[in-house]
Design brief:
By secondary structure, the chain is of the alpha/beta class. The protein has helices at 5-17, 20-27, 31-45, 61-86, 102-113, 178-181, 215-223, 233-238, 270-278, and strands at residues 50-52, 57-59, 90-94, 119-123, 138-141, 150-158, 160-165, 175-177, 185-188, 208-211, 228-232, 244-250, 255-262. Helix 5 links the parallel strand 3 (90-94) and strand 4.
Length: 286
């Protein structure tokens, strides 16, 4: 079946106008064009839709049902067109912490260069940070990400921080190491997080692992003293929380911060966005 939108529009126009001639006037085409479109639709569906007379047209029983469905289809297509027209923004998805202290500055710089095209950050807690479901045009990625549908580019390196309860002995120290945390239960987001067991030495594995799929759950566990965490510096900047102390983590490898996008559909101004993101003064080094 190869039903065309133009055929559906012609049928609806005939129903609304009452004649093929008036329908042609509404659509801005010839009467013959409208007649051919309706006839082609009837042939495609294998059913008579319109009974033609010299004065007016009348829908067949099948035509009544098809015309009603045609209106719904055309309404949905119109809705899609409005979505595309209204979405004059670039959405940057992230699963946990956007770009931390760099987020606001990047948005300000982008707004100055593109006042009619906002850079909007949206949190989507899945492995593609919103790319896969269409919620984002580009995504901030820190975890392992090998999906061939997407291209990625590194924009900076970020230090790792420990997150501990403010009333714990660990919070009294200015810096910590991974080994300091191994005596505790470690909260880890195993889907989108940056912490893996590879961070811990073979002889210093955590006492236990607690899977925490959201940043709020992660912070709540840590504030209660039920777990400790390891995270990117961006989390420490973006999520201050009563009861949670962030401490720099010594001798831990930095986190690669990347932007990702659909390989076959890159967002507009991608190179400019990458350049601005890379210029934000990332402090960590390999």
């Amino acid at each position: 079946m190869d039903v065309r939108l133009g055929q559906l529009r012609a049928l609806v126009a005939v129903v609304d106008a009452g004649t093929f001639t008036d329908a042609a006037g509404r659509l801005g085409v010839s009467q013959a064009s409208v007649s051919r479109a309706v006839a082609a639709l009837e042939k495609e569906l294998g059913v008579r839709l319109v009974r033609r007379t010299t004065r007016h047209v009348e829908l067949s029983p099948a035509g009544v049902k098809v015309a009603a469905q045609a209106r719904r289809i055309l309404d949905e297509v119109g809705h899609l067109a409005r979505i595309v027209a209204e979405r004059r923004e670039i959405r940057v998805g992230y699963s946990w912490a956007a770009l931390g202290r760099h987020t606001r500055r990047l948005q300000k710089q982008w707004a100055a260069a593109h006042p009619g095209l906002p850079l909007v950050f949206v949190q989507v807690n899945d492995v593609t940070a919103g790319l896969g479901g269409g919620a984002a045009d580009v995504a901030v990625i820190r975890h392992s990400f090998g999906d061939p549908r997407f291209a990625t580019a590194e924009i900076g390196l970020e230090a790792r921080y420990a997150a501990v309860a403010t009333d714990s002995a660990l919070a009294r120290r200015r810096t910590l190491t991974v080994d300091d945390l191994a005596r505790y239960t470690v909260a880890i987001d195993q889907r989108t997080g940056t912490t893996t067991l590879d961070l811990f030495g073979a002889g210093a594995q955590p006492r236990a692992i607690r899977d925490t799929p959201t940043v709020d759950e992660w912070l709540t566990l840590i504030a209660a003293g039920q777990a400790v965490g390891i995270t990117a510096e961006a989390t420490a900047n973006q999520y201050p929380r009563p009861g949670v102390a962030y401490r720099a983590l010594r001798h831990a490898p930095p986190i690669s911060v990347r932007l990702a996008w659909w390989r076959d559909d890159p967002p507009e101004h991608l190179e400019e966005l990458l350049s601005l993101a890379r210029s934000q003064g990332w402090a960590a080094r390999r």
